[in-house]
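Here is one chain, start to finish.
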Amino acid sequence: MATRRTTSDKRQRERAKQAKAAAKRARRQEKTSDEDVETSTDEDPTTTEQLVKRIEALHVSFDEGTLSFEDFEQQRSELVDELAIRLAQ
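Its structure:
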C-alpha cells in the first residue's frame, strides 16, 4: 500500500500554526527583554556589604526579642533574595 500524502490545505494549516507560534515567541522575547531593561534601571544603590549588615542587624533584633518570628522571616527572605540577585549580576 502506498502512503497517502498530505493535502495542500493541511500543509498550509501547519505553516500557519508555525508562523503564529513564531510570532508569539518573538512577542514574548520582546516583552521579557523590555522588562529586563526596566528592572535594571530601578536598582537600589545598596551594596552587598550593606545588605549583609542589614541581615546581621535583623538577626540581632530577633535575638533581642524586639522582632517577631514572622516579621523576621519575611524581612530576612526579602533581604536574602535581594542579595542573591546582586550576587547573580
